[in-house]
Amino acid sequence: MSSISQNDLSNLDDGSKREIMTFLESENSKQKVQMSIHQFTNLCFKNCISNVQNADLSSQEEQCLNSCVNRFLDTNIRIVKGLQSIQ
Amino acid sequence: MALTSIFGGSSAPSGKPAASSPADIKAQLKTQIAQELAVANATELVNKVTENCFEKCLNAPYANSQDNCVDQCLAKYMRSWNAISKAYIARIQQASVNGEI
């Protein structure tokens, strides 16, 4: 794919620039969610999945993954509140 | 969020000729951004699955490969990815309904 020149970009009208900005903002927030899922899967897989004899998740494993995400987020919220209260 | 989305499964017509009209430039810009994000996500996934399945399946002194275990592990990792994704998105939605975010 040919890349877009600096010239092409500066020739965009304001409406198009705004549209691209909106697109970037939405891709950016989607990407943040994606990266969090990568991080949580990495962490929770290590802690919840003890063997890979079976490719299917057991109900215990699934419950563990679910709780792992929720406790991580609870911890995150608590840390933020704790830091807010000491500043 | 469907797992396929991280591979940029949707609209990504590649190899377009040089863009000229503003609409073309806009479309090309969006495609390029989406593709780069898809590559970044795929790379991240490959790295994380490799790390985890290497830890689960292989042991020093690494005399044998463990193809079977690695295949099972990959399948299990993807299922875990989906379960985590569902749990996280449910949590975000709940927080959004409660007006917390």
Automatic annotation (TrEMBL), chain A:
Predominant location category: mitochondrion
Record domain Tim10-like: where: 23-85
Record's subcellular location: Mitochondrion inner membrane
One GO biological process term: protein transport
Keyword set includes Mitochondrion: yes
Domain notes: The twin CX3C motif contains 4 conserved Cys residues that form 2 disulfide bonds in the mitochondrial intermembrane space.
Assembly and interaction partners: Heterohexamer.
Name of the protein in its database record: Mitochondrial import inner membrane translocase subunit
Native organism: Kluyveromyces dobzhanskii CBS 2104
Lineage: Eukaryota, Fungi, Dikarya, Ascomycota, Saccharomycotina
TrEMBL record, chain B:
Bilayer topology term: Peripheral membrane protein
Source domain of life: Eukaryota
GO molecular function list: metal ion binding
An example Gene Ontology CC term for this record: mitochondrial intermembrane space chaperone complex
Keyword Ligase: no
Compartments, as annotated in UniProt: Mitochondrion inner membrane
Keyword entries, A-Z: Chaperone, Disulfide bond, Membrane, Metal-binding, Mitochondrion, Mitochondrion inner membrane, Protein transport, Translocation, Transport, Zinc
Record field: compositional bias (Low complexity): 8-23
Pfam families in alphabetical order: zf-Tim10_DDP
The keyword Protein transport belongs to this UniProt entry's keyword annotation: yes
GO BP, sorted A to Z: protein insertion into mitochondrial inner membrane; protein transport
Broad class of the protein's primary localization: mitochondrion
Annotated region described as Disordered, given as residue ranges: 1-23
Start and end residues of each Tim10-like domain: 32-89
Record comment regarding domains: The twin CX3C motif contains 4 conserved Cys residues that form 2 disulfide bonds in the mitochondrial intermembrane space.
Protein family: Belongs to the small Tim family.
Functional description taken from the UniProt entry: Mitochondrial intermembrane chaperone that participates in the import and insertion of some multi-pass transmembrane proteins into the mitochondrial inner membrane. Also required for the transfer of beta-barrel precursors from the TOM complex to the sorting and assembly machinery (SAM complex) of the outer membrane. Acts as a chaperone-like protein that protects the hydrophobic precursors from aggregation and guide them through the mitochondrial intermembrane space.
Quaternary structure, from the entry: Heterohexamer.
Record protein name field: Mitochondrial import inner membrane translocase subunit
